[in-house]
Structure formats: C-alpha cells, structure tokens
Known about the structure:
This protein is an alpha/beta fold and 416 residues long. It has two domains: 2-216 and 398-414, Glycogen Phosphorylase B (Rossmann fold), CATH 3.40.50; 232-396, Glycogen Phosphorylase B (Rossmann fold, 3-Layer(aba) Sandwich), CATH 3.40.50.2000. The protein has helices spanning 14-28, 53-70, 94-98, 114-122, 169-181, 193-200, 248-261, 263-267, 299-307, 323-330, 365-380, 385-397, 399-414, and strands at 2-6, 32-37, 47-49, 101-104, 127-131, 186-190, 210-212, 232-240, 269-276, 289-292, 311-314, 334-338, 354-356. Strands 3-2-1-4-5-6-7 form a seven-stranded parallel sheet. Strands 10-9-8-11-12-13 form a six-stranded parallel sheet, with helices on both faces. α5 links the parallel β5 and β6. It starts with a strand and ends with a helix.
Amino acid sequence: MKVVIISRSDDTGGAAIVSLRLMDALRARGVDARMLVCEKRTDSPFVVRAASGRRIRQAFLAERLKIFLANGLNRSTLFQIDTAEEGLPLWRHPLVKEADVVCLAWVNQGMLSLKGVRKLVETGKPIVWTMHDEWNFTGICHHAFDCRRFERCCGDCPLLGAKASPADLSEKTWRRKKRVVDLRGIHYVAVSNWLKGESARSSLLSGQPVSVIPNPFDLSLRPERRPHVGKTVLLFGAARVDAPIKGLPVLAEATRILAGRHPEEAASMELLTFGDVKDAASLTRFGISHRHLGRISGAEALAEVYAGADLLVSPSLFENLPGTLVEAQAYGCVPVAFLRGGQGDIIDDGATGVLVGYPDDDAKAAEAFAEGIRRGIRLSADPGVRERMRRSVEERFSAASVAGRYISLFNDLLTL
C-alpha cells in the first residue's frame, strides 16, 4: 500500500510533528508512506518538498494579502485565519499520482486550496483528512472558542472586527467549503471524541463520515523519576506559554488563591514553566515560587523535565488533544487540566489525572483550578498512579497502535 501524507511542514507545529510520527509508524508496519511538505526541516529521505521555494512563497503571500485586506489590515488576527483560496497543484505531483491513499493533515497557509482538495477528490482515490483543529468545519478560524456560528454558516466573524458582516469572508469561505464537502469523497479523522462531537454539530460536517483516531506519541523513553522531598513541583509548558488559549492568567490567579487560602501548602510548591514567552511580565504574577526554563529542545531533555515534576498543570481554554498531557503521563507526571476539549480522551479523572470542570462564571475558573491542583497533589502520592498512567498511554497513544488503526481505515476505504 502506498500512502502520501500532505502536511505543510514535517517539524514546525504539533500537527507536523505527529504527522511525521505517523509516517514513520506506518512505514514500520510495512506501508510505503511518504510526506509531501512545503517546509522540510528533517533529514528524512521519505519527506519530499512539494514545490520550489519561490512557488511556495507566492501562494503563501497571495493568500495572506487577501486575508489582510479582508480583515481591515488587522495584523493581530492575520494568522488566526485561513481561507484555502491559494495553493499548489498537488494533484499533479508524482507522489500523489502513485499513492493508493491520500492523507491530508494541516495544509493551510497556501499549501492546498479548496480547488486543490476538489481535484484530489476527483482522482477517485480515498482521501483521509485528519482534523488537528476546528478549521475543517468553521468558515475561516482554527479555534472557534465560545463562538457557535459554525453551527449555521458562519458570517459576522469576530476575527474580522469592523469587516464582519453576514456575508463576510467567513461566510464566503464556508460556502466554498460546502461545495467541496458536498462531493462526499472525503473521510475525516478527528483526533479526539470532543472534536468529532463539535464537527457533528457543525453545518459543514454534520452527517459526514468521521472516525476518531488519536495522534501517535513516541513512548520509547522512560526517564528515572527524581522526587523532591518536602517540595511539590508543578510544571506548565507550551510552544508559547503566554498564548491566550493556554490560560496562563488563570493559572497565575490559581496560585495566588492557593497562597492566600493554603499558605503552608503553597510555601512548599514550585512552578516550573517552559516554552517561548512574548510578554515577560506575564511570568511575574504567581503566588508561589517560580522558575522559567525557556525553550526545551529534544525529546530526552523534555522527558527529564517531566520526570522532575509532580504535576503537569494545563489550564488551557480549549485543546483538541493536548500532547503535554500524554507526555506527562508517560513520564510519571500527574496531569491536572480543564475539561475543555479532548482532555477527557487522555485523563481518567481521579485515576490517571485530574479533570477540572470549567465553571459557567469565568471568574470562578481560577478557584476551580486551584482545587484541582490540590486534588492532583493528593493523587500524585498514590503509589499506583504512575503505572496506571503509563499503561493508559501505551494502550491509547503508542505509534504502533495508532498506525494500526489508520491501516484498518485505509483498507476499509480501498475495498469500498
């Protein structure tokens, strides 16, 4: 079986990294899997650049310019929006022509246009589209947050500010997507049950075939735990720790609540953060001891960081399938997270981590999360929790297991 995975990058961003893992896992199971990318950052011989640098830049810039004009020259939302109006003619690429199955991953920013998707469907090959965020069933955004306009046909998009209207860019892009969806030649994969549920409520993908297959993770490392006597170490990390979606202000307020209500417990806590930060001042508002580790490079270095912590705290406002929770469990760090997305596919509350319900009143979110941290500390003292976490992630997220589920799906589609 020949499979081509189309992804904008093979190493930049979470979707790219897990797509490369999937390719490697499929190859380990005997599938001739290759990747077609715009940005090639690894030295894998099975990853191929889709076009010349000049052609890739042209498509990227042309789409950004159209978005920039349509959003009123607003730089702050420029990269929160994608329209798939520009793209490369990938249906003509030799890897696509040779493939038995075409697997789409994150293909925005000028890599693949909706016209290009339509051309791929018209080849008659099985098309599998892995949804790493909500873009497939919204007009133009990757994260809808609390907006529910995707349940009808978008329009009046909050990301367009003064340019929003019932027939704005989001509504027009929704209509272009609808014409592709109506071809009914794509099988969608959601990386979490939450994402599948949201797609079923959307006006675009309601009634479309959607399977749930999680992202694959490398679970080969087993770092030695490094417990801290008399100290509870909390860990919080992201590509950018102060990105609004990651909930850093909620975490900061939760630590201040702990310091005010449980000063003795808080005095024994230390918070470690890792990742890039845009506003350094955002890391000065904690109520407990804090150290910022900066960017952590390499799987082994990251595993060592997890192994030296007791809890992984994840106050994200929305997540599709947060990889930090899987990594934390694999390396013995108990995760505490809001249940606002795919966290429930990873954590069994009270057994392999703590799930915190998000209150209807946002002002109470920090209070709820502070209590979740206290629950997590108690759970981390359970002598069986780390074995339960490791067994759970191996069963659900090992690369071999995930590859097997994709192969079964590919075989089913090829026999239709």
